[in-house]
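User: Design a sequence. Structure:
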């Protein structure tokens, strides 16, 4: 049971853009890592774009399960995990991350923010803390 990606995005009026993300691609071949990370970024944006405000969903993409939560204020979170990772834990993690992110990062920065401009460093810690979940 593994988590591969944890992303925070903003769903604006016209499009979705990435605010911050953390990835664990260490289980992939060295030469595949950058393309796997690009795939995860693209998939996260696509799923958030296709999800309605105030919704939660789990979408199967290849051998991964993508869990998305889009809040009514447009802030969205996506976790990409393997098929065995518990859905309930993913949504608990997304709730926690989005609440903390919205407290630490001004809502005014969301529409124009990018991974380079947003100052929020907790994603890597959450990704490693929740990495291998054991019941």
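Assistant: Done.
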């Amino acid at each position: 049971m593994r988590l591969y990606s944890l992303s925070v995005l903003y769903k604006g009026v016209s499009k979705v853009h990435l605010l911050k993300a953390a990835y664990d691609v260490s289980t992939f071949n060295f030469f595949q890592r950058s393309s796997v990370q690009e795939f995860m970024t693209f998939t996260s944006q696509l799923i958030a774009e296709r999800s309605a405000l105030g919704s939660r969903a789990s979408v199967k993409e290849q051998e991964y399960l993508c869990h998305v939560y889009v809040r009514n204020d447009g802030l969205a979170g996506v976790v990409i995990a393997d098929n065995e990772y518990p859905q309930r834990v993913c949504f608990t993690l997304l709730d926690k991350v989005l609440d903390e992110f919205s407290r630490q990062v001004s809502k005014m920065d969301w529409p124009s923010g990018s991974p380079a401009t947003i100052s929020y460093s907790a994603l890597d810690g959450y990704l490693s803390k929740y990495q291998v979940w054991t019941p």
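Helices lie at 33-50, 87-104, 123-129. The chain has a mean pLDDT of 92.
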